[in-house]
Amino acid sequence: MRFALPSIRVANTSFRLWPAFVALFCGTLAQPLTAHGVVAAQDVGIALGEKGPGGPLETLDGKSVDLSSYLGKTPVVLEFWATWCGNCKQLEPAMRAAAIKYAGKAQFITVAVSINQSVSRVKAWQKATPMPGVMLYDRKGVVSGAYDAPATSYVVVLDKAGKVIYTGVGGTQNVAAAVKKAL
């Protein structure tokens, strides 16, 4: 039996939707199905081995900061995050545990995306439930775009040289193992 693959047509180019659906579905399930303690990179987002780009962000006080000021010194853990994200809430204990375990050895940066949340909403959340590390706001989505963030709770771990060594999506990532690999 053959299945017809759904497709869309844009500017005389046909795009098959089924492979994208399978990639999204498998990418979402792949991380939870990996063995606990095993670092598994997702096939989404910025490519492994690529140099992590900088980009304009802002502090919750409204001051401009470039992500590049954090890169290339120590390993960096970026989480593209939102107050409304269920996966982010699920991943929170693992992020906190890794931040405590690797305090002083790695920089943890939460990049609050600007989709369906304002700086004031992020500030209120951070005040009520402070995350360890630095919380920055991606007002224009430049950094989220540069890292090709496919969803929220997207985690990128960069080594001391600023190269991407891990990417993952979802609430059940082994962040501590990824940081250990970066050291």
Summarize the structure.
With 183 residues, this protein is of the alpha+beta class. The protein folds into 2 domains: 1-33, no CATH class; 35-182, Glutaredoxin, CATH 3.40.30.10. It is 31% helix and 24% strand.
Here the CATH topology of the largest domain equals Glutaredoxin
Q: pLDDT under 50 segments (min length 5)?
A: 1-41
In quaternary terms, these chains amount to: single chain
CATH class of the largest domain: Alpha Beta
- As a percent range, the share of helical residues equals 25-40%
CATH superfamily of the largest domain: Glutaredoxin
Query: How confident is the prediction overall: mean pLDDT?
Result: 80
How do the helices and strands line up, and which of them pair or pack?
Elements: E1 7-10, E2 13-16, H1 17-33, E3 56-59, E4 64-66, E5 76-81, H2 86-101, E6 107-113, H3 119-128, E7 134-138, H4 142-146, E8 154-158, E9 164-169, H5 175-182
Parallel strand pairs: 5-6, 6-7
Antiparallel strand pairs: 1-2, 3-4, 3-7, 5-8, 8-9
